[in-house]
TrEMBL record:
The keyword Transport does not apply. This is TATA-box-binding protein. One of its GO terms (biological process) is DNA-templated transcription initiation. The lineage of its organism: Archaea, Methanobacteriati, Methanobacteriota, candidate division MSBL1. The keyword DNA-binding applies. It comes from candidate division MSBL1 archaeon SCGC-AAA259I09.
């Protein structure tokens, strides 16, 4: 199944600025497109003007970056936001970032017999009366794939593209 192709659709990163307390009211009023309603959510929701990644910004100096399609794109958006925070007077050094989740769609270019695959391993869940896909968990990782009869899949829980490819390889080994 070396011809399986995947496309990363969303990357979630955590971002930390050490020893910084952020004034969320100030940030919300200085970032165009930022929303802050502490009655509803304890952070600032901010979508970059370029329709790139979005951020959830917390007073603790921690943030979540969601919606990037590449790690490089996320890092560029984080650098831009870091510059904006510096322009507001915050003493933020480099942000520490960590990929928490990558979501990718996979095209396997073949149909799957989900019943047959489900019988091959205990790392799978298949209940067609509840959900039309098979959940394939890659042992020893947080990566899972939703596989569908048409030969498509969705990968969740990966922290790198290497983990996505390893998962695709494990699926190939299991169903061959």
């Amino acid at each position: 199944m070396a011809d399986a192709e995947y496309k990363v659709n969303n990357i979630v990163l955590t971002v930390s600025y050490k020893d910084v307390e952020l004034d969320l009211e100030k940030i919300a009023s200085n970032l165009e497109g930022a929303r802050y309603d502490p009655e509803v959510f304890p952070g600032v929701a901010y979508r970059t003007p370029e329709s790139g990644p979005s951020f959830l910004i917390f007073a603790s100096g921690n943030m979540n970056c969601v919606g990037a399609k590449t790690v490089e794109g996320a890092e560029r958006a984080i650098e831009k936001l870091t510059e904006r925070l510096r322009d507001m007077g915050y003493d933020v050094g480099g942000a520490e970032t960590e990929v928490q989740n990558m979501v990718a769609t996979v095209e396997f270019h073949r149909n799957f017999d989900l019943e047959r695959i489900a019988r091959k391993s205990r790392n799978m869940e298949y209940e067609p009366e509840v959900f039309p896909g098979l959940v394939f968990r890659t042992e020893g990782t947080s990566v899972a794939f939703l596989l569908f009869v048409q030969g498509t899949g969705v990968c969740v829980g990966a922290k790198s593209e290497e983990e996505i490819q390893e998962g695709i390889n494990r699926i190939a080994e299991t169903i061959e």
